[in-house]
Amino acid sequence: MATSFRFSHYGEAAILVRLGNTIDEAQYHRLMALVARLQASPPAGYRELVPAYNSLLVLFDPLQTAPAAFLAALRKMASARPETSGDGPRQVVELPVHYGGADGPDLAAAANRAGLSPEEFIARHAGRDYLVYMLGFRPGFPYLGGLDPILTTPRLATPRARVPAGSVGIADHQTGVYPAASPGGWNLIGRTPLALFDPTRRPPALLAPGQYLRFVPVAEPVTTTTPLIADWPTTTTSTDWQPPAAGPLAGSGIRVIKPGPLSLIQDAGRPGYLASGVPPSGPLDAWSLALANRLVGNPTGTAGIECTLGGLELYFGQAAQVAVCGAIVPLSLDGHAVAMNRALAIPAGSGLTLGSVSRGLRSYLAVAGGIQTPLLMGSRAAFPGSGFGGLAGRGLQAGDQLPLMPSPSALAEVAGDGSSAAAAELPAASASQLADQITLRVTFLDEQERFTAASQRRFLTEPYRVSSRSDRMGCRLEGPALEHVAGADIISSGVLSGTIQVPGDGQPIVLLADRQTTGGYTRLAQVIEADLPLLGQARPGCLVHFAACTIPGAVAALRATTERLETLRASLATARQPLALVRRFKLQLLGQEYAVTIEELH
User: Fold this and answer.
1) For a FRET experiment, which of 136, 295, 366, 597 has its CA 20 to 30 Å from that of 104?
2) Percent of the chain with pLDDT over 70
3) CATH code reported for the domain at 92-217
C-alpha cells in the first residue's frame, strides 16, 4: 500500500506536505509529481515552494486564499495525481570535474581510507548519477543522494577557512559541490569550472530539485582564468546602474561619508527563489521601511537603507526628499536637528547625519524615487551571506555613491528646517513599536509533539532574552532550555522567516530574512507575519515572550496590518501637497521693474 501524503499548516502562509519518514528516492519522485502538478496548475494564492528530502513547503498568500481553502485544494491535487515510480527518462546534468591535484587536495587520503587507488575512487564517484533532492545551505548548493557507501569519508577535523568555488567534496555519506568560495569542512576531491549559481543568470541555479547530476572526469585543471567559474558577481548589466561620479563630493545621487556599523540596501526582498536555496532577504522591520517609503510617496517596497545602530552620514549631490523611520536616532541636516517620521526636503549639496540609536535597533531611510543599485533576481536587496544584491551584498562603505531615480519631490522649495510644502508627517501611533520587552504571537507546528509537555508550557510562560549573537539570519534567544522527546535533529525540510528552530542545546532560534531555506533542527512554532517587525527592532537583552495564536487569528492580524498601511497611504497622499518648482524673475517692461514668480506644478 502506497504511503499517504500528510498535510499540516505551517503558520498562516504555508502548508507542509510530507511523504514518509525516511529519505527514499521512489517516494521523492511522488513528491516531484505533485510539484509538477502545482506548477502546471497552481491554486489561487500560490506563491512558491521548497522541495526537500521527503517534504514540500508550499507558500501562498493567506489574504487571497484562506488557509483552509488552500489546504483543501492541495489535498485534492495530491489525491488526483496518478502515482509515478520515477522510472521515466531522467533529466541529467553533466558536470565536468578535474579530480585530484590542487583541485582535489584530499583525494589521495580519502582513497587510501576507502582502500582504493585514486583512480578507482574517481571511477566510483563518477560512475553513477546523483539525485538532486534539494538546493540549500547556500544558494545553488545541491543536496545529492546516491553516494557509494565505500566512499564515505568523515568531515575534516579542522575546516578550511576558504574552499574555492566549484570544489567537489565528500562529508560522511554525502557528496556535493560548493557554489561559491566559503569556509568548509568537506574533503575536497575535485573541482568543476562551471558556476553552479550566478544571480545574473536565468535561472540562477545550474541545478534544480528532481534532476540528476553526473560527474564527468576531465584532464584540464581549473585555474583562476577559467572563464566559467564564478564567485558572486560584483557587477551587472542592469541598465539603471550609474557609476560613481569623479571627485570626493561630485556628481548626483548620494555619497556615503560614514556608513555606521552596518548599513545595507534593502527593498521588499527577493521572493520566488527559495527552491534555488536563495532566502528572501529584505528589511527585518518591513513596517518601518514601508512607513518611510509612504512618507516620500514611494511604493511600499522601494529600495532604501537599513541602518543598524545609526552612525550613518550622507552627502546629497542632488536635491531629494527623504524620511527616516524605525529605531530612534537623532537626525541633523547640515548641523541642524530635523525630525524622524516625516518627509524632509534635502537641498543639493547638503549632509544628513543619523546619530547613535537610542531606542530600537534598525532605522530605515527612504528616498523619493528609490535608490537605484543593480536589480538582481528582481530585487536590489543586499544578501551579505552570499555577497550579492545591494552593493555586492556588502554593507555601505565610505565613498560609495548611490544613484537615485529622478523624483518630482526633489523640486520642493526647502525651508531652513528641512520641511517643504510637500511635507507629510507620520501619526505617532503608526510608528514602530520599540520596547525592552516584546510579545510575539506564534502558531504551533506539527513538530510540537517532539518537545516535552513541560517545555511547551515553559515556552509560553517564561521569557527569553535576545542574544548578542543574533544577526540577519536568526534571532538567537537565551533562557529556559526546551527539552526534546527524541533528539533535536530531523530530516532537513523547508523553513520560513519566523520559524522557531530548537537545536540540541534547547535554546530557540527565530529565523529571519537571510536564513537558510531548509533546516535540520526541530521546529516548535512559527511567529506570525504581523509580529516579525518587532524582532527587527529587538536589541540584545530585549525580553521576548511568546503567546499562542490560531491560524485565523494570524490571518486577521496580517489583514489588519495591511489595511492599516493602506489607510495610512491614503491619508499621507491627501496630506502631501503638489510639489512646485519655484522660479523668480525681475522683469523690466517700459521702464518699469516687475517681480514675477512662476510655479511649475508636478
Assistant:
1) 136
2) 86
3) 2.40.100.10
